[in-house]
Design goal:
The structure is a homodimer of 321-residue chains.
Chain A lengths: L1 E2 L2 H9 L4 E4 L6 H16 L4 E4 L24 E5 L11 H4 L5 E4 L10 E4 L6 H11 L6 H14 L10 H12 L4 H9 L4 H12 L2 E3 L4 E6 L1 H7 L3 H4 L14 E9 L2 E8 L5 H6 L4 E2 L3 E7 L2 H17 L5
Parallel strand pairs in A: 1-6, 2-3, 2-4, 4-5, 5-6, 8-9
Antiparallel strand pairs in A: 7-8, 9-10, 10-12, 11-12
Helix pairs in contact in A: 1-4, 2-4, 2-5, 4-5, 5-6, 5-7
Chain lengths: 321, 321
């Protein structure tokens, strides 16, 4: 197992054929965008390649496989994209572990499991790596390949909003627009589309909103009952903890999630430099300065009261009026 | 009144001094970003310039005037930015109409009111024009000026999501990131922050949601009572009509807004090529293919029923199961 340069990966790919390209389990826009883009690049070079989707391809991702009918061949070469460890191969682990030739990834903590690993944590998305790879290989991308790469870039950056976006990210996106990629539609489908279940859970989350300490603390909750009634799955609950922090003037957004009876996972998201991890540590939790969590036990109201009291205390000295 | 090239505007600005820079009324991120950026550029050239904010500078926009104390001088030159007509000067019209030397704008329908007008509708935001101007003037932007320009670009493109984004837009954004602009914070404050009133009105809008025709039609409403109770102003209601269309699988998002007793403004937003204007024309309204409106009279329930029936009919032939 070696760490490889992108140029070495490019040489390897040119000299091999009959590819299975693996995504990580619960595949998202970046692993899928990477896989389908690489598949198109290899096929456009005259090679045979298939994407092995590691789970269900959600409806909004189906366009990625446009004009890519599955080919029938004996796999000789295995490439994984955006897969940070063998564990993330999930159900594919049994078949492919020990057989992965190349891993192309952008995670900081990649645990090598392939013969050659290219890892570039500076890339906001792994699709940036695929784009760079195409350049080294001297390949001009077609419109559909540009769509695949843009999809991964868009999903891993919150539609170019997050702090992982670099000037290079934006320059690559510009090139993809030049190549005719369907940027506005992809942005809308990836970032502005919500499932009915998500809408229902958001509605209930907003109904639970209480504001404290001159609107500097916002508290929302979800219960097992709410999740069940809305039909929300884990994907639908993704990012729910950010809702309370979005409110203008809020320093601390608190989200209390019922995990089981009398057990609550509390997520804190903070603005203006309030240390979320420090507050959560008081309850045996931890995390980052702006995003932390802890688990509390008791009734919903008791848990909220305890957390709000700790937040008020944290704000007291400097901010709270 | 003449149409000018950007290079002519650059020459004019170099050869004059003592600037009042005007924004449009109800100033948004683009007019303010343009004005404060231009003010910084002119001051950095050793000139005197003030921004005349045309209304209230909202709290989230206050950072734009950082390190720009108001200067005391007799105004000799007037520049307006992102102001498409004299009417949009609002309260400033009386003092400045007939005195505006230069107008820099990106609206398609600019009605000239200045001695020299530069109008570039290809620019997604007017801040793109200011950035291009700075290049022609040979000025290197400092970090705070880059922040101002990025703010306008971000607000007028829905954080780089809309179809008005071009490859040039993204390349300019990349340069601004290179200049150290605070992109992630600006994105968050412009696109991911909601007022308490907005949160309250969204909550009520989601509570009003009904789905029809196998979830292909989503209907929400706002009432005068809801607006009053939430404390929402026009800014808070901005974009409310997009909520119903965001739901996965929805072809037609309908938003019914009570304007006065028994009078409702109906906004349609459509996906997948459904012609919104055609549906609205049946009620004497109109608009674009994907965004149209009409006014209906009667009870809220009657109005909804009529609109849903028209939408169902439109979907019937092709889409509705």
């Amino acid at each position: 197992m070696t760490t490889a340069k992108l140029s070495e990966i490019a040489d390897f790919l040119k000299n091999h054929d009959n590819y299975d390209i693996l995504t990580h389990r619960y595949p998202d826009g970046d692993t899928l965008g990477s896989a389908f883009a690489l598949c198109r690049i290899l096929r456009n070079m005259g090679k045979r390649a298939n994407v092995i989707v590691n789970g269900t391809l959600s409806r909004k991702m189906e366009f990625l496989k446009e004009a890519l009918p599955e080919l029938d061949f004996e796999c000789e070469t295995v490439v994984s994209v955006d897969v940070a460890s063998a564990q993330l191969l999930g159900d594919l682990r049994e078949k492919y572990e020990g057989r992965v030739n190349v891993s192309i990834d952008h995670h900081e903590m990649n645990t090598p499991f392939a013969d050659m690993t290219y890892e570039n944590p500076k890339a906001a998305s792994n699709c940036e790596n695929i784009f760079s790879l195409s350049k080294i290989m001297g390949v001009t991308l077609d419109k559909l390949t540009a769509d695949c790469i843009y999809t991964g870039m868009c999903t891993d950056t919150g539609c170019f909003k997050f702090s992982n976006v670099t000037a290079d990210t934006l320059r690559m996106a510009a090139e993809l627009v030049d190549l005719g990629c369907d940027h506005a539609r992809i942005n809308r489908e990836m970032c502005d589309t919500k499932s009915v279940a998500r809408i229902k859970i958001e509605q209930q989350v907003l109904n639970s909103l209480t504001l404290h300490c001159d609107n500097k603390i916002a508290v929302v909750h979800t219960t097992m009952q709410m999740e069940k009634e809305s039909g929300a799955d884990d994907g639908d609950l993704d990012g729910i903890a950010n809702i309370s922090r979005q409110i203008e003037g809020v320093y601390i957004g608190v989200t209390v999630k019922e995990k089981e009876e009398k057990t609550f996972r509390v997520s804190l998201r903070t603005n203006h430099g309030v240390n979320a991890a420090e507050i959560c540590r008081q309850f045996g939790g931890g995390g980052h300065a702006a995003a932390a969590g802890c688990t509390l036990y008791g009734s919903l109201e008791d848990v909220k009261q305890k957390v709000v009291a700790a937040c008020e205390k944290a704000l007291e000295t400097e901010y709270c009026s």
